[in-house]
Amino acid sequence: MDVPQAILDNQYCDFGTGLLLFYNADGYRLLDSQDVVLDSPLKGWKEFLTNLYKKLLDTDFSTQGISFTRSLTKVQIFKLKKSNPSIPDILISKSPGNEEEIPTLKLLFCGGYPVPNGFFIQPVTH
Predict the structure, then answer these.
(1) Strand, coil or helix: 36
(2) For 52-97, how does the pLDDT look when each residue is reduced to its tens digit (9 = 90+)?
(3) Who contacts 47 (Cβ-Cβ below 8 Å, separation ≥6)?
(4) Which residues of 35-58 are buried (b: 16+ CB within 10 A; e: fewer)?
């Protein structure tokens, strides 16, 4: 959890980035059943997730310029609201800010080895 914690601790970490970290760290599980998280033997994950949850609720971020939309279905949102009507909308709806494309690293395989972004290295033959 060192890398996500370093991102979160950065003074320029945006609210949308915080939400991205929350959901990538399985924050849905915390919203669905806090007991599952609080009873977890994974101390680092549990502390990271609960601290991030509090920071999100307090909107303790320097900016809200990057929008993040969770990939929750309407059914998941309905179930969350039914089981816990006090879930803040800020955690389950689109966050404020500009929509930014999140770059991903695509790996293709060539001869059994991953090649980043689809670039193939061709052997030189004479």
Answers:
(1) helix
(2) 999 999 988 888 888 888 888 889 889 988 988 888 888 888 877 7
(3) 1
(4) eebeeeeeeebbebbeebbebbee
Radius of gyration of the chain (CA): 19
Q: Look at the block and give the residue holding tokens 């609201």.
A: 81
| Cβ neighbours for 57, distance < 8 A, ≥ 6 positions apart | 88, 90, 91
Alpha-carbon span 17 to 63, nearest angstrom: 10
5-42 residue pLDDT tens: 998 999 989 999 999 899 889 888 888 888 888 888 88
CA distance 110 to 55: 43
Tell me the residue ranges of DSSP E strands in the chain: 66-67, 98-99, 107-110, 113-116
> Which distant-in-sequence residues (6+ apart) come within 8 Å of 43 by Cβ?
none
